[in-house]
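In this supplementary section we document a worked example of the pipeline. Step one takes a protein sequence of length 190 as its only input; no multiple sequence alignment statistics are reported here. Step two produces a three-dimensional model, which step three serialises into structure tokens for compact storage. The input and output of this example are shown verbatim.
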Amino acid sequence: MSTHSFSVFFALLALATWIGTLGAIVVLVAHWRAPESGLARLFDDLAPAALGIAALVAVVTTLGSLYYSKIAHFTPCELCWYQRICMYPLSLILTIAAVRRDRAIWRYVVPLAAIGSCFAIYHTQLQAFPDQHSSFCTTVEPCTIRYVWEFGFVSLPFMALSAFSIIIVLMLVARANEREHEQADELAGA
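The serialised model returned by step three reads:
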């Protein structure tokens, strides 16, 4: 399979991830605002799977980044490395949390994913408007090279941003689920 085919596949995954992120936000808001609604009942289906989905997203993102640097030989810039520094540990942390069903992990995951998101947002706009100057960019490893530019806007940092975004939303789902379990435990103990 060619690098272009992989890029199209990963770009489609990123777009599907954005759709999933929006859907999870809608379900979470419905759960908070109208807990008896049919849409809010989807929360009961999403909540137990949130950690596993987040782990899968982190692992696929990590493997995709390794593919681009080790197989496609794309040279990661400094901003790419900062995003990787945030994503790579999430693969391990979220996989362990999913296996252990540790809903409290959101406390550690959200800050790391939020920091990665900030780098990804900056890098995404830098690649969308490459005439800018950035202190992160060097002539050897420029941040503005579009190794991937699918559908006229999907770049590698855009893909990373989609992964960080859905991980954050899924951690909010896990947090809401954790609170419900804590409240149920308190009621059972009272």
